[in-house]
């Protein structure tokens, strides 16, 4: 049977074989497929950790150091050397790294979804909603105006309403998954500003879901009414599957688990597998693959026994093995030389739209925070937190690159812009906001400086039963009989599931 194949339609790659040889039986031990991947894994983890160590004095978050590590390993720095690139990061190796990196982002969002505490929405105040709406609507409107002005200078694909709408909405929305890990590094999760930022981010994520569905509908505009209808039905069924069927399944698992006991290993495996299934379904119906994994995390009850067990048994491996591959995948998709080789006129329209979205979000958030009577220093801190960029933007940028919405120079520029915003904002947040400030006093409240006739108030933190006897001995030793002593006991238990601290007030005698 004869087939006519044009010369340009075929691309041949030399496939590396598995464990068919070793170092002593081949000219180059690194030609072994599995060996290359193992060496790449070592290189990826060591490079990202090294960059994180070097950037520690500059107070940079983990996401910035890992992106820079990916850039160093990519074609912009080390992989520009053909021998290095061909040996360690061949096309086969890049394909595997890309898939591991994609799974890293997917499971990262799954873990964030498990930790997300949706109950904070119930306690959100009017000022939270005002800040959220202003921080989303103003940059959307301003970005749309700027995009319309710059559209004649854009290429045909980027100037489409669906394409430019994605860019504007990405700059206007700051996700919970971006803010949470940075606040955790800054130790601000339980602070007033941290709680306010998380509450605002959850509301913003709700708006982002609406944008995501609308963007998916806009992609169907060239199709028939039947196609659009199928898309709407598919999204509705997907939401029902996640928030009704799977939620009931989690409640059933809770009922099967004895009180005080961790959930069975089989359920953990099924839940982790469910994240893959949900990602597959969301990608199949036209949503982003990351949406499914995050929604899977959201339906899992936070705290013990399900949420805390999932986090305990999977977070360390996901964050320290899978996620570094995600950033290396980004770095390998970037090319600084390709960006600098194109004319600025081709990048300027997209850059202007993206920067306008960031700037107007900054201004809108700051002005609204001041209008709702937040002090200037705290308002500026909240503004910087809500303008942090990271994992969700990188996922969107990779999706746009794969769908040819943007090219490699534009992708490189946007990744640098997103990373720069976070790199500048994080040290400023550290400088501006001190979470211990509300608890500082001007007078010494110690055993030594407390007058004998006044009451001595002590907060005692109890981690386990062994510490109780030592605390009692300390109180008996330090408090004479004529001094009044008030003890406020806190039993501190680490909860790996929820992102927000929980205070459980026990009754007397418990």
From TrEMBL:
Record's bilayer topology term: Multi-pass membrane protein
Question: Its GO biological process terms?
Answer: potassium ion transport; proton transmembrane transport; regulation of pH
Q: What does the UniProt keyword field contain?
A: Ion transport, Membrane, Potassium, Potassium transport, Transmembrane, Transmembrane helix, Transport
Please give the GO cellular component terms listed in this UniProt entry. endomembrane system; membrane
Q: What terms describe the molecular function in GO for this protein?
A: antiporter activity
Domain Cation/H+ exchanger transmembrane, chain residue ranges per copy: 45-427
- Compartment annotation: Membrane
Taxonomically, which superkingdom? Answer: Eukaryota
List the Pfam families hit by this protein, alphabetically: Na_H_Exchanger
Transmembrane portions of the chain: 32-51, 95-118, 130-151, 163-183, 195-216, 228-246, 266-287, 317-338, 350-372, 408-433
Family that this chain belongs to: Belongs to the monovalent cation:proton antiporter 2 (CPA2) transporter (TC 2.A.37) family. CHX (TC 2.A.37.4) subfamily.
Question: What is the name attached to this protein's record?
Answer: Cation/H+ exchanger transmembrane domain-containing protein
Q: Which organism is it from?
A: Salix viminalis
